[in-house]
Amino acid sequence: MAEGTANKPVELDAEKPVDVDATQENTTPCNRKGRKLKSRVWREMTREVSPTGEVRATCIYCKQVFNANSGNGTSHLNRHMKKCPLRFNHDIKNFCIAGSPSNTGVHSMSLLNPNVNLDEIRRAICVYVVAGSHPFTTCEEAGFRFMTSVMCPQYTNVSRHTLKRDALKYYNEERRQIEDDLQKAPGRICFTTDNWRSDHTHDEYMCITAHWVDCDWKLQKRIIKFAALSPPFDGISLADEITFCLGQWKIAHKVFSFRVDNASYNDSMINSLRTHFMRKHVLVSNGDFFHMRCSAHIINLVVQAGLNLIDSVVVKIRSVVKHLSHSIPKRKKFYEVAHSTYGLNTTKKLRGDTCIRWNSTYLMLDRYLYFKDVLDNFVSKDKDIKVFNLSSEEWKKVNELHKFLKVFYDVTNSFSASNTPTANVYFHGVWKIHKKLNDVYNSPSNFLYDTVSVMHEKFNKYWSEYNLVLSCAAVLDPRFKLERVEYCYEKLYGEIYAKEMIETVKTTIFELYKEYKDVFGESSRSVRNTSNHDHALGVNGEMEDDGDYAAFLSKKRKIDADKSELELYLEEKNMDLNKDMNVLLYWKKQSERFSCLSCLARDILTVPVSTVPSESAFSMGKKLIKSMEEFSFITVY
Prior knowledge:
single chain, alpha/beta, six-stranded mixed sheet, 50% helix, extended
């Protein structure tokens, strides 16, 4: 050390680290008795006093030295602990092995995480037990407690009674949140109901789902009731259950529509509900749009009627697929030939079908056509299935049937979407099915004629008239509007009848708009006309002084100001029909221009087309609860 500096005191800055080597020989341990150090920082810092009386703190990880006089506090020491890189590395090591053996003779693993949220861990354990249908005693099992002690030593296990109380507490918190969201919904709420039956106890259950568009114009849905029903299972009793449920959630005044399946008691249930809500004056258009049938269920009925008369060519396909699925050597050879000789993607596999899901028949045909060349070669050489080889005429039938079922398959998928509106695609979907049925029905020579005749009869029973409110939903899609609806009607019924039907749709939507205008009012004229300000620019971009043009603009704006939001919207150019768009986002952007019309669009677009999710849309069987595991997917509030 340089002369003259050996005995010079070291100046310490509270925030600045100190060079340990420069001060080490002047340091003596702090043996002075004083107040007990309570700050957690002293668990990871040593405290020493120099001969000059300066108190210093040394980080046990990086050995940096800081001023620790009582007047400086410990905030600067805590800040260092949060960013000390060697402390971070030390914590990672602590995530590995703590060498003390457990009572089981196995070395325990101690995971030390200073930032752990114990409340979140407790909530996660509760969700795990409830969502997985595990018994509450799970939290008291020795293996479970050992696992939590290894994963988070800081967590203190709770008893099964505490876990039950936690489950009820978290449930009530979630329920209050959903109740708040429902009551804050800016528009009306649509409901779907469907019934389930327990395969073991044969108890009947009712499921009620609420659908609404939130303040951010995002489609939301929640199951608000899933409970066992008590006899009698008639429409009036079910209506009482529903009104009681809506009363509990305090949303009876927001009802827009109910969509139900084709159960026999639903007609009396809907009539009872309509009468109840009409007395309270809460329904739109005197309840004309209150009741709607599940479209996916109707499609199932139509397809099921036709599949019962399916052609024998499908029986041959079924036999080949079944034979290959039961013979491992043949199946392996088939896919080897498909990959090496024909260059096909063998991650796709041949599929069989099942009698309760009609889409399985479509998917079976789809895969069979994909492997057409391989099957022609392979089946013709196998003596066991050679008899099932398809002729060129039969392949044409398969292709025809595949195209026919594809229409139903695509429409059902579009109707069963859960995160996007389906009301606006209803009209176009039903029209595609109707047109396909008519095309085959008007061709008696088609091999599907007998099948389609039965399907056509079933279709006319349920969809002889398109649902008016959902036809209005198509009008409120900027890609369709009235022109597309008129075009579809004309293709089906001819020009004269199409004009009558489009006039009915037009009258309906204008009456509905008038009802909403009486409640919400219209946006100001200045807002509506912001997009219609035309400017007469000269060659150099300067305004022309044209008195005639100014008069023309004044007259035009006066005419536009007298028009309603609905009239202005319908006069605007249609968007590209093939454009993939978020129709709710469109109306969110237009809500300032069309304040009243956007409220109407929000409520109509909320209407769900189907009562079932996509995974159940193709099923032709009754909805069954076969086990608690199958029941656990339902989130009820």
